[in-house]
Amino acid sequence: MSRAQSSPQAIRTADNGMVEMKLEVVVLPVTDVDRARRFYEDLGWRLDADFANGDDLRVVQFTPPGSPCSVIFGKNVTSAVPGSVRDLMLVVHDIEVARAQLIDRGAAVGEVFHDAGGVFHHAGTAGRVPGRDPQGRSYCSWASFSDPDGNGWMLQEITTRLPGRV
Q1: Where are the beta strands (DSSP E) in 28-151?
Q2: How far is the C-alpha of 5 from the C-alpha of 130, rounded, in Å?
Q3: Which terminal CB of the chain, N or C, has fewer other CB atoms within 10 Å?
Q4: Residue 115 is part of which domain span?
């Protein structure tokens, strides 16, 4: 008998009856583990772990303030090309305050922008219009920055959630 059959109360499900699946960790490819560690530490993110297993494996984990999801990077953690991760989203309530705090901590955050086509930003820089969304809509104002390897982050201002989102 499977675990699910023997104790159905142990299986957590979402409102639609599906087994809960929570995004917990995103892996970032980096070239210099110590440099990446200093960068994320300087941003004020919580250091959760820095484990090494000899010279062949090192895993470093950080969590952004208030986030249930963390990032990990290290030595022999991924075969992805350093700097190849793009458009990781950090949701903030006030994009100007978040941007200023990140700049104060050493991140080179670009100017706030909105997209000419609406809610979601185009890939790259096409369609970016300087300044906050002129209508002040939630989900429509953005800013971006990268870590020292070029892994790309997007700040997205959300002041009012769409129905069904927590």
Answers
A1: 46-53, 57-63, 70-75, 88-92, 113-115, 128-130, 141-146
A2: 55
A3: C
A4: 86-166
